[in-house]
Amino acid sequence: MNDLMKQFVAIVEQGKVEKADKMVNALLDENYSVQQIVHEGLVIGLDLVGQKLDEGEYFLPDLVISGEVAQIVLEKLKPHFAKENLTLGTVVAGTVYGDVHDIGLNLVALTLEGSGFKVVNLGVNTSKESFIRAVREEGADILAMSALLTTTMSYMKEVIQALEENNLRDKVKIIVGGAPLNDEYAAVIGADAYGASARDAVLFANAFVAAK
Predict the structure, then answer these.
(1) First CA to last CA distance, the chain
(2) How far apart are CA 12 and CA 15, in angstroms?
(3) How many CB atoms lie under 10 A from the CB of residue 187?
(4) Considering only the top CATH level, what class is 90-210?
(5) Predicted confidence (pLDDT) per residue in 181-195, tens digit
(6) Do the domains spanning 3-81 and 90-210 agree at the CATH topology level?
(7) Structure pTM?
């Protein structure tokens, strides 16, 4: 990673909103592609924010500010998405019913969007009916579900059962995430993958659409 990209990662990690726009211009001027800016810069920066949040070094205000940087970067890059043919697929994302935590959800949604996916973010407290409706209406390739509470993560299984009942399960890949989850739980409830980070979500999403 060269010095310019290191500076960009630091801007994302440290939430330097005032420098984001100029840094994206600098990277584009140096002929960095959108994919490079997103994967070698934005995703790495957001991963570092997530790590510091988990370690207690960062708190909610830090995440919010880095999220603002990410939004500025994505808005700046949007005109270039079509030029590089970055519409990879459609992701429906949401935090499950009974859970109102959206930090991880929004981080994953931003990162997927920046990686070239169309993301339909249903927000928090999402019912199985809302998930089903969105998957059907959007023709989703991927469903990403989040839960932060042990009392709500079991609802993911209800959503998957509802997909099966509505003949949609074989049309969509399912990624689940959240602090109380792991690979074993994802397998038990019938999900296709467990993502421990936004980077994991992007890697799985890319793999799923590539395999279609």
Answers:
(1) 32
(2) 5
(3) 12
(4) alpha beta
(5) 999 999 999 999 999
(6) no
(7) 0.76
Q: Would you state the structure tokens that stand for residue 128, as one six-digit string?
A: 């199985």
Spell out the CATH class of 3-81. mainly alpha
3-state helix, strand, coil in the chain (%, to 5): 60, 10, 30
- The DSSP string of 18-51 is HHHHHHHHHHHHTT--HHHHIIIIIHHHHHHHHH
* Torsion sign across C-alpha atoms 206, 122, 79, 137: positive
- pLDDT for 61 equals 85
Query: Bridge partners of 119?
Result: 91
Number of other CB atoms surrounding residue 21 within 10 Å: 14
**Cβ density class 31-50: b for 16+ within 10 Å, e for less:** ebebeebbbbbbbbbbbbbb
Distance CA 205, CA 144 (A): 9
Q: Where are the domains of the chain?
A: 3-81, 90-210
**Token pair belonging to 189:** 């409830």
Which amino acid is it at 211? A
Query: What is the pLDDT tens value at each position of the chain, 212 positions in all?
Result: 789 999 999 999 999 999 999 999 999 999 998 888 988 898 888 888 878 887 889 887 888 888 889 889 888 887 876 666 556 799 999 999 999 988 788 888 888 887 778 899 999 999 999 999 999 999 999 999 999 999 999 999 999 999 999 999 999 999 999 989 999 999 999 999 999 888 789 889 989 988 87
